[in-house]
Amino acid sequence: MFEALQMPFFQHALVAGILIAIAIGIIGPLAMANKMTFMSGGIAHATYGGVGAAIFFGSSILVGAALASIIAAAAISFISYRFSSRTDTAIGIVWAVGMSTGVIFSDLTAGYNVDLMSFLFGSILAVDISDLWLMAVFDLIIVVLVWFYYYDFMALSFDPVFARLRGVKTQILHFLLLGLVAMTVVLAMRLVGLIMVIALLTMPSFSSERFVNSLGKIMSVSVILSIVYVICGLLLAYMYDISSGASVITVAAFGTITLFLIKKIKGSSR
Predict the structure, then answer these.
(1) Cα–Cα distance, 170 to 164 (Å, whole number)
(2) pTM of the prediction?
(3) Residue 169 and residue 184: Cα distance in Å, rounded?
């Protein structure tokens, strides 16, 4: 285990994992409070179109994925506000169009490219310095925006009607939050892939709200849990030579179930 910490690729993976965990811990509770979990799934799968396009044109995959996720978030936000009863339809359309676009670009790319599969199921051990810098910039943007609009996000999460009456531009804030979710999805796909990103967004947040009752505290606990899950998952993946994404999700699921049982037992004893 200790020799892994001396290897540059594993050091990069740990740093990337911590950066991803910070974003997951902050945005996960907001996404869950605003019932955006299914929207996150739509954005995640639509991002595949940006990944395929980036590989086809030979550009940065993270940048391509980020652009695709922002476009998907804008489309979902616009349709859900114009046709509030058709939000699930908007998510389904964006989901299908994004995936199909990625498949088309994948078919048009000469030869088989393993990068597409790694972004579907995660490949954090392949991150390099440039990826780490991009992740750090994404993290900084997320932290600054959430810090600046914290009370507006809190009002939007728990009483959007009251927030609108107080002058909060809820439609713009809703799109901003979806944009932050999109950026978090782009980060998380390097760790667990687009297929399992919803699980990582929800499990730390779900566990956190069982023990604390304010949005800020939920975020703090969620960040800590996300970091623990990521580090333990990466170490487990290295020790047993298994997929890092699947390992992290398995550890997170085990942690979530364990914390749920602890809370249940404590509640029963009282």
Answers:
(1) 6
(2) 0.86
(3) 23
